[in-house]
């Protein structure tokens, strides 16, 4: 038997875009007294005509009399302007996580079984039940499933401290029941209210902890107070909190660590604990402020070579590279990547990232170019950059724009022996044409440095020097203080490169460049790099008769080389010895002088060693030895050396 149905109260659904129509049955065999009906209005948006929609709802829902039209319109207006509740907002955010299953009321028993597994399975099972609970039509059936409700209550009671996400999902399920007065009994039966009070109390305590952290952060403005905090291991305590999942708490903690990290002692403390490892899991993250703060903290830490190594070890390199596509994170990520690219140990690892731009892209900014300059110092990276028309496009853009940074990158590429160096032959003329006094020194430095790297046997350097009239420029720039030291040094290196060619060596000998090198050597004798490069030029020149004759007869180069034979710099000594050996082979007089100096130096070293040993021996032994004939000992030593 069916009874008369009359409309009861109207209300909005607590979470859905829907109206809840309650109704009463005057006579019913089941004697349940009534129920409710859900009227979905998912199409409701800020631009919806609420009046028209209200009329449509009244026309289509037979339970709502026409006299209720103003009330329906008012409720729809409320829904249109309602913001998501805190619980709903949290859940919508969590539902964006990869849970692609659609829940079915017929599979509830399967979902209940998941509540007896580990935390991840419990989260999955409860999330599926939540899908069902959000539809009021399912609440009646769930109400009679004591196994489901009992399991949910048990999990909430036992595991709410272990997982905030799990607790939030289960509370939301019971929240759906609590939205309807007829279901309040089941919520009370399972003591969900008391559990919620415990959760709230716990969260309030955590909020108190947050206030303590904010207090400490404010107090840390005073460096003396900050020192006291450091003595109490504030860094270690904060790093432990990085294990938490609460994003707002993490924002506070990372802010605090970033402030502390500007001081060396705090940075060292961070290096001793797992700071980088725990920060790595936050890159990337959906919380923009947290991601930005994390990257800035990592930037501060990246000035430390050990912490840079740790960043690579925990897999941050590809993560940072991926962030280059995010405008909000790009600049900070670039700076961290730049610091990592400085370290030779990690240059090769960039091969496996998308950090290296292809073919001289027009919009490549200075920060990214700076990274590529570092990376180009690695042979494999250089080959990758040059693939296809890579070098051609780079050179074209660099020469067109006179881009010093881009040419610096090309210069680093040119230093590698192997497949890349011969490719530069096509650009020797373009580079040589830029070596002019009227060009900016910084630009000339990079072009000249690139040319100086091209130690290619098939390259006709004599033709290049003549066609572009480079010898006068090179000679003029050898004068001390004629230009910045970097450019003068590059001129010396360039002379060394072309001096490997016999015809070029003869041309340089006639130009008077050798006396200019001697003058520069005298002026820069305190600079090891200058001295080493000039000596290397002499070493190249003594292989060719024209320049060797000038060095031996017309200058005092051998005398300088003899003085440098005992230099503290091992590389300088080595090049000097090799150069003097060749001079001694071709000139008898200098050969005797060189041999004499070598003997004198070694003899003095031996005598100093013997005297040192004698000083270490006991005095009675020295004085009681009447047969001691050190003069004979020295003579014997001298004969051995000779």
From TrEMBL:
InterPro entries from the UniProt entry: ARM-like, ARM-type_fold, Armadillo, KAP3
Gene3D superfamilies listed in its UniProt record: Leucine-rich Repeat Variant
Pfam families listed in its UniProt record: KAP
Molecular function terms, GO-annotated: kinesin binding
SUPFAM superfamilies from the UniProt entry: ARM repeat
Record-linked SMART domains: ARM, KAP
GO CC list: axoneme; ciliary transition zone; kinesin II complex
Segments annotated as ARM repeats: 512-552
One Gene Ontology term from the biological process aspect of the record: cilium organization
PANTHER family documented for this protein: KINESIN-ASSOCIATED PROTEIN 3 (PTHR15605:SF2), KINESIN-ASSOCIATED PROTEINS (PTHR15605)
Record-given protein name: Kinesin-associated protein 3
Biological source species: Dissostichus mawsoni (Antarctic cod)
């Amino acid at each position: 038997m069916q009874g008369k149905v009359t409309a009861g109260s109207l209300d909005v659904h607590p979470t859905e875009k829907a109206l809840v129509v309650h109704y009463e049955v005057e006579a019913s065999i089941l004697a349940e007294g009534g129920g409710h009906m859900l009227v979905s209005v998912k199409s409701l948006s800020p631009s919806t005509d609420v009046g028209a929609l209200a009329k449509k709802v009244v026309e289509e829902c037979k339970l709502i009399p026409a006299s209720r039209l103003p009330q329906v319109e008012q409720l729809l207006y409320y829904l249109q302007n309602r913001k998501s509740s805190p619980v709903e907002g949290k859940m919508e955010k969590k539902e964006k996580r990869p849970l692609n299953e659609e829940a079915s009321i017929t599979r509830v028993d399967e979902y209940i079984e998941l509540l007896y597994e580990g935390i991840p399975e419990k989260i999955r099972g409860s999330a599926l039940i939540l899908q069902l609970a959000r539809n009021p039509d399912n609440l009646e059936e769930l109400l009679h499933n004591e196994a489901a409700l009992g399991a949910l209550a048990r999990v909430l009671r036992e595991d709410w401290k272990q997982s905030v996400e799990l607790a939030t999902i289960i509370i939301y399920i019971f929240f759906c029941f609590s939205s309807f007065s007829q279901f309040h009994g089941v919520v009370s039966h399972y003591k969900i209210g008391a559990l919620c009070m415990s959760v709230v109390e716990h969260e309030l305590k955590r909020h108190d902890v947050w206030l303590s952290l904010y207090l400490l952060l404010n107090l840390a403005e005073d460096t003396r107070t900050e020192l006291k905090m450091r003595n109490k291991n504030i860094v270690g305590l904060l790093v432990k909190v990085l294990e938490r999942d609460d994003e707002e708490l993490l924002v506070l903690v990372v802010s605090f660590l970033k402030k502390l990290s500007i001081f060396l002692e705090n940075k060292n403390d961070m290096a001793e604990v797992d700071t980088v490892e725990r920060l790595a899991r936050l890159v990337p993250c959906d919380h923009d402020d947290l991601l930005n703060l994390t990257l800035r903290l990592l930037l501060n830490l990246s000035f430390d070579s050990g912490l840079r190594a740790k960043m690579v070890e925990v897999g941050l390199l590809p993560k940072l590279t991926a962030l280059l596509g995010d405008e909000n994170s790009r600049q900070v990520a670039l700076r961290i990547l730049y610091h990592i690219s400085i370290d030779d140990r990690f240059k090769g690892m960039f091969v496996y990232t998308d950090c290296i731009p292809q073919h001289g892209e027009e919009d490549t900014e200075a920060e990214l170019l700076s990274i590529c300059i570092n990376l180009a110092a690695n042979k494999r990276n250089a080959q990758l950059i040059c693939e296809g028309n890579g070098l051609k496009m780079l050179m074209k853009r660099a020469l067109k724009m006179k881009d010093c940074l881009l040419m610096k990158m090309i210069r680093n590429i040119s230093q590698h022996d192997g497949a890349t160096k011969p490719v530069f032959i096509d650009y020797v003329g373009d580079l040589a044409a830029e070596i002019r006094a009227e060009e900016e020194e910084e630009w000339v430095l990079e072009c000249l440095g690139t040319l100086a790297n091209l130690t290619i046997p098939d390259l006709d350097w004599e033709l290049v020097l003549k066609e572009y009239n480079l010898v006068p420029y090179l000679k003029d720039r050898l004068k001390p203080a004629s230009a910045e030291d970097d450019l003068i040094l590059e001129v010396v290196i360039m002379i060394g490169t072309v001096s490997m060619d016999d015809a070029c060596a003869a041309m340089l000998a006639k130009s008077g460049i050798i006396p200019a090198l001697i003058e520069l050597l005298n002026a820069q004798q305190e600079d090891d790099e200058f001295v080493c490069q000039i000596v290397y030029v002499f070493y190249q020149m003594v292989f060719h008769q024209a320049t060797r004759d000038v060095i031996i007869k017309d200058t005092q180069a051998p005398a300088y080389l003899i003085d440098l034979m005992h230099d503290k710099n091992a590389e300088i000594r080595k090049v000097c010895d090799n150069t003097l050996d060749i001079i001694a082979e071709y000139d008898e007089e200098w050969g005797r002088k060189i041999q004499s100096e070598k003997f004198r130096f070694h003899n003095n070293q031996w005598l100093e060693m013997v005297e040192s040993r004698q000083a270490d021996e006991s005095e009675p032994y020295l004085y009681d030895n009447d047969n001691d004939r050190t003069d004979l000992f020295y003579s014997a030593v001298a004969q051995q050396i000779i």
